[in-house]
Write a structure and sequence with these properties.
Layout lengths: L20 H11 L5 H6 L17 H5 L5 H12 L5 H18 L3 H15 L5 H5 L6 H13 L4 H14 L4 H11 L5 H12 L12 H7 L39 E5 L10 H4 L3 E7 L6 H18 L3 E4 L2 H11 L3 E5 L5 H11 L5 E3 L2 H6 L7 H5 L2 H6 L5 H7 L1
Parallel strand pairs: 1-2, 1-4, 2-3, 4-5
Helix pairs in contact: 4-5, 5-11, 8-9, 9-11, 10-11
Bound molecules: flavin-adenine dinucleotide.
The site of flavin-adenine dinucleotide (FAD) has 27 residues, from helix 3, helix 5, helix 9 and helix 11.
Length: about 400
């Protein structure tokens, strides 16, 4: 299946997209002064790359892996500007929490997407190779396809145009487009990527499709692009499975008194800043190669391991599989394996399989997610009403905020 092909992200490990906590905190500190009115007015102007994305934070690869978590980013921005002056930035940040919470309550959407990708991969539609190769003849699309491949990043607005042109002009299956983008993005996220593609396709807000507009692209690109032949109407693609709302998973909670092997995955790489994790009797910290998806994950997890060692001064190790994690726990006399909560995605899939084989892994659920996610089962604007309360209860990563002070 297409998702299993080797990642193309090796060439994109660069300083432009921080993949360590200290680089992410530095980027955040540099960006905070621009996160208020300047972000609200300047964000769209920096849509066309490569380079030139100064109006946005470019923190997504770090936030996606929680090298810094949403509460640190929101806390720093609110302290500098207040929540009202930074409302545009905070709203964008919270789209991430919304998508995560929505997918937790609609887990079958993830399974249906994977199945559809596997089905299409058996017989790729004509036009697919030209699209992923950036050879469609639609200048903006082709330039963005190349930028994605070469840098692992696209500005949010460019992602919207690319997804729209893919679905409505090139008439390719949205699932394949989402898989292609996921494969190249340094910030590839199961919820933000899959659900944003569904939003563009008109599958999220029922029937409301997003159409890329030739004049707008010409204006925003300062005349660099003039994409001809864009679709001016479009039909919502067919759902391949019924969208069902389900209760959120209740993870096995860590036992505060048991000797613990801490497992780091790309889902949460600042666990040492969480009070509940700091209080555990940690005997070792381990990372698992099979839970990493390419060099960007490996770089970020290696940074997490290093910080784990600096914090606890206990043995750290890389192993290959979850079975190796269980064997290490047994060998070292750890009575439980604890990791950060794994939201819907490849890590949760792998932990679920391990659970099925009798390997119990407790998960630390962050206060931010527990407060936000229950409000994410309807539209974004319903969720947005909860944001003042969410901002009032955050600041769980006090160390991150102190480092920024
Ligand atoms: C088709 C499509 C696919 C996408 N795929 C992903 C993905 O795989 N991973 C991912 O992290 N984001 C994804 N996004 C959302 C968004 O494009 C990126 O988060 C953003 O461009 C990252 O750049 P930044 O860090 O400079 O963002 P900034 O504008 O500086 O925003 C700060 C942070 O807020 C969050 N954020 C901002 N906008 C959004 C948004 N619209 N949706 C969700 N979170 C947001 C990100 O964590 C981001 O780092 C996708 C959007 C679209 C339209």
């Amino acid at each position: 299946m297409l998702l299993d092909t080797p990642r193309d992200r090796a060439s994109t490990l660069s300083f432009s997209f921080p993949l360590s906590r200290s680089a992410a905190l530095s980027r955040l500190a540099a960006f905070v002064p621009d996160a208020g009115a300047q972000y609200a007015t300047g964000r769209s102007e920096s849509a066309v790359g490569p380079g030139g994305h100064d109006g946005v934070s470019r923190l997504s690869a770090a936030i996606r892996r929680r090298l810094i978590a949403e509460d640190v980013v929101a806390g720093a921005v609110i302290r500098a500007h207040g929540a009202n002056a930074a409302a545009t930035f905070l709203r964008e940040l919270c789209w991430r929490s919304y998508w995560k919470g929505w997918l937790e309550q609609h887990p079958r959407v993830w399974g249906a997407w994977k199945q559809a990708v596997a089905k299409h991969a058996g017989q790729l539609p004509s036009g697919y190779d030209a699209a992923v190769g950036g050879e469609t003849g639609i200048d903006a699309f082709d330039a963005w396809a190349r930028e994605l491949r070469e840098t692992g990043y696209l500005h949010n607005w460019a992602r919207m145009q690319v997804a729209s042109i893919w679905i409505f002009t090139l008439q390719l299956p949205w699932e394949l487009g989402a898989a292609w983008m996921y494969r190249h993005l340094l910030d590839a996220d199961p919820a933000s990527n899959t659900l944003s593609w569904r939003w563009v396709a008109g599958l999220h807000t029922q029937g409301k499709i997003y159409l890329a507009d030739r004049d707008l692209i010409r204006r925003r690109s300062g005349g660099r692009f003039d994409p001809k032949g864009l679709a001016t109407t479009g039909d919502v693609p067919r759902e391949t499975a019924r969208v069902v709302t389900e209760p959120m998973r209740t993870p096995l909670a860590p036992d505060a008194l048991r000797d613990t092997l801490l497992l780091l995955t790309p889902e949460d790489l600042s666990l040492e800043c969480q009070a509940a994790i700091r209080a555990l009797p940690i005997r070792g910290v381990v990372a698992c190669r099979s839970l990493c998806d390419g060099p960007a994950d490996i770089a970020a997890v290696a940074d997490g391991l290093q910080r784990g060692w600096e914090h606890w001064r206990v043995p750290i190790a890389w192993v290959d599989t979850i079975d190796d994690v269980a064997a290490l726990a047994a060998r070292e006399g750890a009575k439980q394996i604890v990791t950060g909560y794994a939201p819907i995605g490849p890590v949760a899939d792998a932990l679920g399989e391990a659970r099925g084989r009798g390997i119990a892994i407790a998960e630390h659920h962050r206060a931010w997610d527990m407060a936000a996610w229950p409000h994410c089962n309807r539209g974004f604007f319903t969720f947005a009403k909860q944001l003042p309360a969410l901002f009032a209860t955050m600041a769980s990563d006090e160390e991150g905020l102190r480092e920024l002070a």
